[in-house]
Amino acid sequence: MKKNNLKRLTWLFAAAMCLSSYAQQQEIIPQNTIKVEAGDTDDVIIRKAAHVVPTDNQLAALRNEFIAFVHFGPNTFTRLEWGTGKEDPKIFDLKTLDTDQWCQAMKAAGMKMVVFTAKHHDGFVLWQSRYTKHGIMSTGYKNGKGDVMKELSASCRKYGLKLGVYLSPADLYQIESPDGLYGNLSPYTLRTIPREVPGRPFAVKTKFQFELDDYNEYFLNQLFELLTEYGPIDEVWFDGAHPKTKGGQKYNYKAWREMIRTLVPNATIFGREDVRWCGNEAGNTRTSEWNVITPYTENPAEMVEFMDLHGDLGGREVLLSREKPFYLHYQPAETNTSIRAGWFYRDDTRQQTRSADDVFDIYERAVGGNSIFLLNIPPNREGRFSDADVEVLEETGRRIQETYGHNLLDGADGPKEVLDKDENTFVLLDGEGPKELVFSVPQPVTFNRIVIQEAIATHSERVEKHAVDAWVNGQWKEVARSTNIGHKRILRFPDVTSSKIRIRILESRMNPAICEVSAHYYQQRPPMLSVGRNAEGLVTIAPKKDGFSWLYWADKKGDEAMQDTINYQIHYTTDGTEPDEASPLYTVPFALENGEVKAVSFLHGRKGAVSRERLGFVKKDWKVLDVSGETTEHPASAAIDEQADTYWVSGGQESPYVFALDLGMEKELAGFAYTPQKKDAKGLIAAGRLEMSADGKTWKKVEDFTFGNLVNDPTKRYHYFKKAVKARYVRLVATEVTSGADFATMAELDIF
Ligand code: FUL
Question: E strand or H helix at 255, and its extent?
Fold first, then answer.
């Protein structure tokens, strides 16, 4: 009996071993989502990851590479980052609109698509919706008959741009109005989308039936209009940000998804399973942006709620340490940022526009870092892109064209599949020996950029580490190395002249497939600068971190490249004029109280981008008069120490939170700036008032202020008073803080 049992067990064990090795060896079919099972070995997980591929829509989205965002609406006129929903529609006082001009500028930049804010969080609609009067139909623009979506879609067709639509799920008008639909606790019932409105028939006759409450019905009716009446829509953008919510309002995303997939099957959905947010709005990029990601414990194709994702999402360590089971999912990142400080247009003087150096740098990091670059250009109150923004778009487009329009490996000897400009042909590096590709050109070429692409459509993202060598003085010299590749990796390094280039794959998940390799030359610009002030009140000017674009690659921070930079000079002004080579030369920190520094660098006679910084009164002699508590780690003094990484945290209590200062003597005050801490999203000061006093005891309000969108965009915020005031004592009273915190935080307070 015993013997028999043992036999049976041995047999079972052998069968199980066979099965599991079969499971390990069996072919994995490339898919958009692959489940990692509880019993999967490390090897199986890696093999599964190496088979996760984009859908056709995601592939098309990645291949767009550079796309535009356009934020336009009441905020353009109120100069707020976030509206309130209580705006009188007439505030949107548009007289002229030139969407052709937008499209020309976007085209010049090399962008392929534009995503338009048809409705931002304030709930104001910029098209002729049948379902609300809170929008362009209640403004004077074209006597209430205007339709920005319509004009834009016509321009897009004219200029060959794709169109995407941003429809904010958060809707302050529907939250704040007495008869608003958002969170009105209406019952879910079976409803037909679109709801017919007499006299306004739809050309598209498709109908949907869903279980919906009032707000979801409203949202879907509007989505139906946008998806059927403005030509093909290629992206639907769902913002995760919510200035407010109400009544526990939930979104019936299953219905939204079904409608989008039916009406616009070629569109990707941002903020849900198709395309994800890169995690910041500052144009920062991850060193390794994996689009095969791990965080899902449910199948994302069936999920209805999606979280913002931060940190490493797909590196090997994460792959192998995630608690099983989980889903591997292909989900490309969009790097979204604005060409101006803020998403909406405010003015052409104080609101800074990024330089072409800056935009080009983000382009190389974002597109060349396996993501889609979504750059916002906010139209002004004349309905046009401002000249400064157009110039930057045109210059960026020129540089992209000059740098990447021509491949220095054209006509080279090397594997033809990677030189044929066809992303569908590739070389599978599956030999026994080293995984490498060698190219040689008849005459030496000088280059400082290498572009490598993987055949992600069929072979996923597999390269984990790679290096580029050039044949110099009779031997191979490594010129750059980096981590993953995916859709595209741009490697940047100091100039090298050679007629032979080698790509070495150092680590990978299975055998990688490389579809394109090219070499390029970028005319190096002088470094971008950052202007600051130290605790002694002295102004410092230095190259921005990563301001030398050629120093940007993973392991080496280019000592020898640094040599090349020794000859740059910095010139600056403090009188508001544009600095040039005749302006004072910056050598050591200098004193400046309450003024604006404009600085620029020159390298080999070339002028760089001008950096500007508005600096307030020197804080050396300021005294903290009164605060709503502080912590040992984060004292009040940290908010006036000229260091953005130290910050004040008030005591835990209900709002308001005060921060009162003695400036030492009476000053004329034009405004102030609040720098939020970036450690976590809690307790950022979203609204309040600034008060002044002559004796530090009786306080008078100067003005209320609000700073919208601080959680996603924790950048320094400025508030200028309508009229300058004189005071020795000032008090910031915070009445609203972010994330429901019971404390306020502040990294820095500047007063002008
Ligand atoms: C954020 C929003 O709150 C901003 O206003 C902007 O629309 C940006 C693109 O997304 O989360």
Answer: helix 253-263
129 in contact with ligand 1, CB cutoff 6 A: no
| pTM (two decimals) | 0.94
Task: Give the start-end residues of each E strand in 583-713.
Answer: 590-591, 595-603, 606-607, 611-615, 623-627, 648-649, 657-675, 685-693, 700-706
Q: How far is the CA of 511 from the centre of ligand 1 (A)?
A: 40
Name the residue with the closest Cα to ligand 1, atom 4: 709
Closest CA to 738 of 714, 703, 704: 714
Please write the tens of the pLDDT for every residue from 586-623: 999 999 999 999 999 998 889 999 999 999 999 999 99
Single-letter amino acid code for the residue at 415: P
Torsion of CA 410, 415, 421, 422, to 10 degrees: 170
Residue 709 CB less than 6 A away from ligand 1: yes
Test site for ligand 1: of 79, 235, 377, 709, most ligand atoms within 8 A of the Cβ: 709
Determine whether the shortest distance from the Cβ of 75 to ligand 1 is under 6 A.
no
- Between 524 and 265, name the one with better pLDDT: 265
Task: Quote the crossing angle between the two packed helices 387-404 and 99-109, to the nearest 10°.
Answer: 30
Ligand 1 atom showing the smallest separation from residue 709 Cα: 3
Residues 363-380 have pLDDT tens digits of 999 999 999 999 999 999
Q: Which residue has the tokens 């048809």?
A: 118
Cα–Cα–Cα angle for 264, 267, 273, rounded to 5 degrees:
120
Q: Is the CB of 115 under 6 A from ligand 1?
A: no
241 lines ligand 1 (CB under 6 A): yes
Cα–Cα distance measured from residue 365 to residue 386, given in angstroms and rounded to the nearest whole number: 26
State how beta strands 748-751 and 333-338 pair: unpaired
Rounded distance between C-alpha atoms, residue 433 and residue 429, angstroms: 9
